[in-house]
Specification:
Elements lengths: L1 H23 L2 E4 L9 H8 L2 H4 L4 E3 L8 H6 L5 E5 H9 L4 E6 L6 E5 L12 E5 L5 H9 L5 E5 L4 H4 L5 E5 L3 H7 L9 E3 L10 E6 H6 L1 H20 L1 H14 L6 H14 L14 H13 L9 H4 L4
Parallel strand pairs: 1-2, 1-3, 6-7, 6-8
Antiparallel strand pairs: 3-10, 4-10, 5-8, 5-9
Helix pairs in contact: 2-10, 2-11, 10-11, 11-12
Length: about 325
């Protein structure tokens, strides 16, 4: 009887220990923004069991106003996050070593939308809206390079300042605020919309990053997470309507104020931006030339203390 009790106790200890180890291996993934179609591939990978099939445990936790994605990564509250390339360069320059394990964006989505039917490049000294959370590095570089002397006005996450007439122009993402402005009745045309990708600033945006410290200790796990995430995006591209259903489940769960029409437009644009202009393919890779371009632009405009190299951001699996 005593042996049986000891045997049961030993088995219980093994189970508890194994459970604890499994918990330690969970990747907490925090996208850089609230639930929306911008992150459809990851939602699909979780909902369709691609992470489970790859043998990796993933928990998606969105950021909050008090806990942005990079804060969570710095504090080890998550192990992976999405960042735009320019954000990643700034972060590495600050001394936080990052590894890009998957690149989804192959094109730049940022635009300037001008009010009152004016060309943004003729509005010297204009009051231009820019996100409080960042994302506007290329716009600042362009403004300095072309001596536009924009006055940058910070906004949180909506288009209200622009619609109220308080701004002369605003930065927008072609998959997000752009469509919000369209839904609000703002007329868009080639004169009033400046697309950075068409004017020498086609720098990649969203990629998945881990700290180098975590990556070096969990290479295999990182690889399986990246491969399953890519599979989620490929499935979303092949089944956009079903992927949208999954997105809306996350949106509803997170109580996000949006609508299906906007999310459908967002998903379509996100998928378009994933296709490289030159190869016409979804490559899911960070391009060395774009890293060099972004790094040089930011360094030349004193946004980096040094140029960050492609090799610093990638590591072979």
């Amino acid at each position: 009887m005593v042996r049986m009790r000891y045997g049961l106790l030993a088995a219980l200890v093994v189970c508890v220990t194994s459970w604890g180890l499994a918990q330690d291996k969970t990747i907490v993934f925090t996208p850089q923004w609230t639930a929306q179609a911008q992150f459809a591939g990851y939602y699909v990978a979780e909902a369709k069991g691609f992470y489970r099939d790859a043998g990796v445990k993933v928990r998606i936790e969105h950021p909050s106003a008090t806990q942005p994605a990079m804060t969570r990564l710095r504090n080890k509250q998550c192990q992976a996050t999405t960042l735009q390339l320019c954000q990643a360069l700034e972060t590495v320059d600050e001394g936080i070593h990052l590894v890009n394990i998957l690149q989804t964006s192959m094109n730049n989505a940022m635009v300037i939308v001008s009010a009152r039917g004016k060309d943004p490049l003729t509005q010297h000294g204009a009051r231009v809206g820019i996100w409080s959370a960042g994302f506007g590095q290329l716009a600042i570089c362009m403004s300095l390079k072309d001596h536009l002397n924009y006055e940058w006005i910070r906004f949180a996450q909506n288009i209200n300042l622009f619609l109220s007439g308080a701004l002369d122009a605003t930065l927008a993402m072609s998959y997000n605020e752009y469509y919000q402005l369209v839904q609000a009745g703002i007329e868009m045309n080639d004169k009033t919309v400046y697309r950075f990708c068409d004017h020498g600033y086609n720098v990649q945006e969203d990629g998945v990053y881990m700290t180098r410290e975590y990556y070096m200790k969990h290479r295999d796990q990182a690889q399986r997470f990246a491969q399953a995430s890519r599979k989620g995006w490929e499935w979303a591209a092949q089944h956009p309507d079903e992927a949208l259903d999954i997105v809306m489940q996350y949106v509803d769960k997170e109580h996000i104020a949006t609508n299906r029409v906007l999310q459908k437009l967002m998903l379509k644009e996100i998928l378009r931006l994933q296709v490289d202009r030159e190869s016409k393919k979804r490559e899911f890779r960070l391009r060395p030339d774009m890293v060099q371009q972004a790094s040089r632009l930011m360094f030349d405009n004193q946004m980096l203390s040094r140029e960050i190299t492609y090799e610093e951001l990638v590591s072979k699996f």
